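HOLO CASE FILE
Compound: 1,5-anhydro-6-O-phosphono-D-glucitol
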Amino acid sequence: MFAVHLLSFYFSKLQEDQIKKVDRYLYAMRLSDDQLADISARFRQEMEKGLSNESNATAAVKMLPTHVYSTPDGSEKGEFLALDLGGSKFKVLQVKVSEDRKGKVQMESETFPIPEEFLNGRGTELFEHVAESLKSFLRKHHINHTRKALGFTFSFPCAQSKIDEGVLLSWSKNFKARGVQGNNVVQLLRKAIQKVGDVDVDVLAMVNDTVGAMMTCGYDDQNCEVGVIIGTGTNACYIEEMRHIDLVEGDEGRMCINTEWGAFGDDGVLDDFITSFDREIDAASINPGKQLFEKMVSGMYMGELVRLILLKMAKKGLLFRGQVSDALRTKGTFQTKHICLIEQYKGGLENTKEILEDLGLNPSEDDCIAVQHVCTIVSFRSANLVAAALAAILTRIRENKKLKTLRTTVGVDGTVYRTHPQYPKRLHKVVRHLVPDCHVRFVLSESGSAKGAAMVTAVAQRLASQRKEIDDTLAAFALSPTQLQEVKAKMRVELERGLKKDSHPTASVKMLPTYVYRTPDGTERGKYLALDLGGTNFRVLVVKIRTGMRNSVRMYNKIYAIPLEIMQGTGEEYNMFTIIILYKLRNCISDFLDYMGMKNTRLPLGFTFSFPCNQTGIDKGDLVCWTKGFKATECEGYDVVDMLREAIKRRNEFDLDIVAIVNDTVGTMMTCAYEDPKCQIGLIAGTGSNVCYMEEMKNIEFVEGDEGQMCVNTEWGGFGANDNIEDIRTRYDREVDGGSLNPGKQRFEKMTSGMYLGEIVRRILIDLTKHGLLFRGRITERLKTKGIFETKFLSQIESDRLALLQVRSILQHLGLDSTCDDSIIVKEVCGAVSRRAAQLCGAGMAAVVDKIRENRGLDNLEITVGVDGTLYKLHPHFSTILKDTVRELAPNCKVDFILSEDGSGKGAALITAVAQQHYTDKQEPH
Ligand code: 0WK
Ligand code: 0WK
Ligand code: BGC
Ligand code: BGC
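Model generated. Tokens follow.
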């Protein structure tokens, strides 16, 4: 017994010496806790560099967005194909994910070789080899009968702007096929599959193997938010907060980041830890200066590191009595699998002896102990370095979550971690030592990353089908240039029909005469009262005009809201005007005249009345029909001016001289023409939608006289009443029309104006929610509430400056609990609806300006449009899209748009002034 103790003491002493010898020789590879903490801190900084916009381009650790937003949530299901390329084995797999988690995931896989010539040959050949392997797998497993979704695990650094795209930044490990770097590998794969033919698959997602590993482990452990590969290469991914990922838009939620930590140190930050052996490895590699961290850690290089160390120590006589063999001099003869054998507790030394003899060496016992320790130092350094980098990631997650203690799971894969006898234990130990405030569960990814790739593909498939449903829904709102041309042509036909004597009465675009024969010429002057009814607000104004054009108009106004019950008053005759006017107008005017000390002056009044009126004179107009939110009974068909006069007379508190009734488009045109004489068109894109323009009297067949011009109020809101735009009206338009105060009427208006756009959006959102595409499929009472989605929300939601977060708060405010994806979809729906509205107005306007151009027999027309209305004013894109559409559809017209700063009240006053002049001129015989 004593002898045994003596022997083992003698032996351990021996061992000790060898170990010390190696420790001295490789002291640079033995990293202390402080050094590891330092490396961890450096990696932390590299992560931040990679995440920030400013420094990403020069960052060594690229922190690549993966467009994977969450780990599996159990809703994944279906049959998928997966390709796993880039690790030590190239695999093709079929993955069946059953609905109920209990059913687990069935997988069939086959490993295919990658001949050397494809690793270094032309990229297209490599991908054709992959496609051929896929084809033979499908044949062998009789899977080729239905189109299958495919997830592609591609274990190299790729820049991804979406889940099914990946531009290879640089090859690593032993791959360097030509013509791939800088290209979209998903496209290369799709092309190769097409070329090979007879492979019916949809490549829906591309993931890095770290992401695959994380998702695979995440399927069984929801806490898994980190994926680590320690195999041929090494890398890690983790779930980061979107607000920290500058490269991707949006601050909401989280996304998985592929760190590509293999490149840590490529910018020199690890130089003080890189030994001469590492430099040698790097210099002899296919990508010198690149992937320095990987070359200190991963399986492709660990064996070679040991060989170089043994070779050097042998040459220094520290090993094998200075004997060196050809095999030991030859690159790649000593592999990482040898290290795994050598470091086995049981039989490690025997394995060492055998392996060294296979390398043509004749090792002594000491040599074997020394070689075993060299392997330990090399593999231990690898585990330490991985632990240091992983500790940085774990600390970041803990801080992102503002937690004292983090509980999380790390999914791991790779042959080094799988096959090295001590590696996992060492890694776990050092990690827990470096970050004691992180309780980490390490899970080995049993089935490789394919399962994870299938999960990502399942989510991508769900998102893709959702995307398709949303695209199909919104496709109806995407008008093609041809369709817009047709709308322009049809609008032109209706303009003509409205002007023609025989078709005017039945025309859908009413083309109402306004008895305004010219735009202002600067001779107007005087003091006028103006009323402005029909837009968002009711305004009463006093306008002072001094002769001369620029800045010679003074205005004072007060704004009043019109209560709904008045807008849609029912019961005894004339009640609407009576109440509103008397109270509002009287109070305002008397209050104003008091303020101005002009109590008993009788001022001429211009009345902007923004509804279709059949005028027979400047101060005579029968209301054709209410539009927008108005529906007061007993008014349609009656002369509006008479009704107003009647209402005022009833109270007899003050007297008004109503000289003109004006449509808001005309008021707007006049207001703007006062600034720009080329302004001959008035456009309202507000609660309602309408346009007026100066038409040649000779074309207005139902009004006496062929000389000069008259402004025509087109009332294009009625366009479509004769079903000529049913081809572009969607079912949402019909629903909104059906739910409106005037079904069947104002169809064009209901596709273009502020009163209705929000409602169209709401109905689309309901539909998408019904299909489970939004708001988790829950249709809340709020969402069912008509009119809650006011058009102003479109303008806010579509503002570029608004982050998704703010979109969410608007939806929150509407009582719609939404996710980040929901906000993106809502923003898209708003965009589709408002874009169509602007395009339709553009097409209508193109018809008007081209008509004016032809009226004047011009090849080219220069003209200005005066515009008003909250939609045009407040919506971030409406005006631009409208202008672009006019430019495209009426290329021979140079059309300027000027905003009416002062509203149509000023225009009404100018018209009143012109009307008065006209009137007095008629009185005084020249
Ligand atoms: C198995 C995974 C694969 C990954 C590989 C890494 O399925 O995606 O690339 O692990 O380990 P390696 O094979 O390089 O040792
Ligand atoms: C302001 C004008 C008014 C017009 C309104 C239209 O002064 O006459 O009706 O614009 O815009 P809305 O208020 O309907 O958005
Ligand atoms: C690649 C990574 C990959 C890792 C593990 C590295 O060489 O750059 O994308 O995740 O190997 O396979
Ligand atoms: C009315 C027009 C008005 C337009 C803009 C439409 O509903 O019919 O007269 O110009 O709204 O306010």
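CASE NOTES: The longest strand covers residues 78-85. The pocket of 1,5-anhydro-6-O-phosphono-D-glucitol (ligand 1) is lined by residues 84, 86-89, 153, 155, 209, 212, 229, 231-232, 299, 413-415, 448-449 (CB under 6 Å).
CLOSED: yes
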